[in-house]
UniProtKB/TrEMBL annotation, chains A, B:
The gene is cofD. CDD domains: CofD_like. It is an enzyme of class 2 (transferase). Keywords: Magnesium, Transferase. The keyword Transferase applies. GO terms for molecular function: LPPG:FO 2-phospho-L-lactate transferase activity. InterPro entries: CofD, CofD-like_dom_sf, FbiA/CofD. The keyword Transferase applies. Its EC number is 2.7.8.28. This is 2-phospho-L-lactate transferase. The lineage of its organism: Bacteria, Pseudomonadati, Pseudomonadota, Alphaproteobacteria, Sphingomonadales. It comes from the Bacteria.
């Protein structure tokens, strides 16, 4: 048996780009993309799964590359009318994006699992690869600020990440089982690599690691765990990672990423801009590849995906 | 006490026009608009109330007068994406209209009554008059066709009313109580008139009459019950009324309307085009007013409303 199955762990935007790159170069049967659901929340009676949708839209070619999130060719008529009706307007939902939330929500309420719903809706959008939630049990990320524990999206979107975060927790774990697709992928005999996409370790990857048994399964891995760093040029490309590291009193560097993943990590891909980090990372016993980690175009995504796969001999 | 409160019973489009006319000429405290909810249905996890929304949009000046239904300046992005996701596309929902269904649905699910939800959402749209569902208990109209009992919207929109209807029933009655606003209006000491708007008697008005106690309360009325006929020029202005009358073997005439309402009706306003019906109606002991019942403009609606009110001495 040729071992060539790739298990990718992804958060939203940055992670979704590498996930799309992997999907561009790996056959559907050889790739499982596990997506963080800690960002999910219930709003206006809809179950909204921002990271699942970012990955889905990226793989379907529907993502808005200018805005950096959501669906391209988007309009905002429903949201404007919701505001006119006095409904909460702090979380912006586009008209095309809204269809995803409506379809997912009624199906979940009818008893389908998030895995089943996602398989159905991604298939309809022409996605042949497996986009799989980390768990079918609800996990909800919360951040600790001066105002107390706050639901993730309230802080991330409602507060624009302004409040300092002193801690992060995941409501629902322990007790959240890996989704069937995640459990299967972890147990595959032909598994060749585990890829951690360039997502926020605290907010996007830690929820996946917090799912029951996942950290132990990864610790017992027989294949390389390869991460693409979300740090570029000594800061985070997008989102609050740099701010969170600073609030923890940590340097915004690849050493902090390596420190965070600790012995789960075998190899880290970092950007040319951070070449100075190489010796420190190697001193930790890590494999290091210096490359261009920014993914502006589809070609960047596929090239970076190939570099990751090559490290695992795929 | 001056008796001047008006209780109007309305279905969708035609009824909504007269309801808007009444709202244009009657002070908010002196008008209660009761709306048929038999057309309501659950679709894609949303509770959709077509007649409630037609009346609401007409009163808010948001109705699309070209299309004849829904919200003006409408777009259809969510619906197109729902179809791309493989969801049912037979019931067209606009992006602006969708906001109403989303807001109503989460509020109903959170435990608010349809009366409470409607009061909240109409107030937000600047409507000062009381738009009140006939009942807060679900009533669902079904039609009997060759295919058996069919949910109303499946036949009305899905089948475009093609199948012949041999019977109509209302799931949920008996057992559906009048909404608090309806019960209050029926019991008002200052009630001066009951107005039946030009809506389909079988599909839009009968469900209201079928609510527990309503038919008896109307039979015991001490004020005139005045209807505007939905027949113009020997046919129905819009919708399947003429077709349904023909399928019942009845002439498409004002006599059929009078026969249907029987002794609940005191006065019928009919169109100039149907002047030949006058003697037959008078022979039944009915008051008859011949006027222009088509409402093309806001001025027509207000003029007709004033004519109705004058008949009750208001």
């Amino acid at each position: 048996m040729t071992c060539k199955h790739v298990l990718a762990l992804s958060g939203g935007v940055g992670g979704a780009k590498l996930a799309a790159g992997l999907a561009a170069v790996v056959a559907p049967k050889d790739l499982t993309i596990i997506v963080n659901t800690g960002d999910d929340f219930e709003h206006l009676g809809l179950t909204i799964c921002p990271d699942m949708d970012s990955v889905t839209y990226a793989l379907a070619g529907l993502n808005d590359t200018q805005r950096g999130w959501g669906v391209k060719d988007e309009t905002w008529q429903t949201m404007a009318m919701l505001r006119a009706l006095g409904e909460e307007g702090w979380f912006n939902l586009g008209d095309r994006d809204m269809a995803m939330h409506i379809a997912r929500s009624w199906r979940l309420r009818a008893g389908e699992t998030l895995s089943e719903v996602t398989a159905q809706l991604t298939r309809e959008l022409g996605i042949a690869h497996a986009v799989v939630p980390m768990s079918d049990d609800p996990v909800r990320t919360q951040v600790l600020t001066e105002a107390g524990w706050t639901d993730f999206q309230r802080w991330f979107v409602g507060d624009q990440c302004v409040a300092a975060v002193s801690d992060v927790r995941f409501e629902g774990v322990p007790g959240a089982k890996p989704s069937p697709g995640f459990a299967d992928a972890l147990a595959r005999e032909d598994l060749a690599a585990i890829v951690v996409c360039p997502s926020n370790p605290f907010l996007s990857v830690d929820p996946i690691l917090a799912v029951d048994g996942v950290r132990a399964a990864l610790a017992a891995r027989r294949v390389p765990l390869i991460a693409v760093s979300p740090i570029v040029g000594g800061t985070s490309v997008k989102g609050p990672l740099a701010k969170m590291l600073a609030e923890r009193g940590q340097a915004v560097s690849n050493s902090a990423i390596a420190h965070h993943y600790s012995d789960l990590l075998d190899h880290l891909l970092i950007d040319h801009a951070d070449e100075a980090d190489v010796s420190g990372l190697q001193a930790r016993g890590l494999g290091v590849t210096v490359t261009m980690t920014m993914m502006r175009e589809a070609a960047d995504r596929a090239r970076l995906a190939k570099e990751v796969l090559a490290l695992a001999g795929i």
